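Board work, copied verbatim: Copper(I)-binding protein
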Amino acid sequence: MKTPLITALGLALLSTAGAHAGNELAGHEMSKAQHVGMRADASYEIGALRIEKPFSRASLPNQPVGGGFFTVTNTGTEDDRLVAAGTSADLADHMEIHEMAMEGQVMKMRALPDGLVIPAGETVELKPGGYHLMLMGLKQPLVMGESVTISLTFEKAGTIEVPLAIGAPNAKGAGHGQMTHGN
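↓ predict structure ↓
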């Protein structure tokens, strides 16, 4: 029964190594504008909200879902709410806002159909194992070193497009296992 796990791990290592090797060659042909979308310290603002360190993880072959992670700080005096997230139809069928939480001894994931509150004066972190975005029905792999653009819609601040830098399949934050390039 260990064969499927070993096969999956082997495929993950091969796809990550192959993606990294290809990006090292192609990386020198990327424009400075493309590199900006992959910076670990990237920050985007809309209204009273600041979105920082947006990233995703590279997907395995035929993986049907992906995740989106970032921090959002509300510098305003009123709560706001992340009500929707989206991406192009050629990347995924749709996106959902999710949370993972312990229920007794079991970790459960559930969609947040009413969105995610961003309290005034606070920072909310979307991260692996907690709040996060789910790219459902991936139509193409998420490749380490590349980026994909998503849109985030907030109840009060409006809609903003943000690039997610794609890190390693096990990345825990922006810049973990990503390509790095000088300015």
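The chain has one domain: 3-167.
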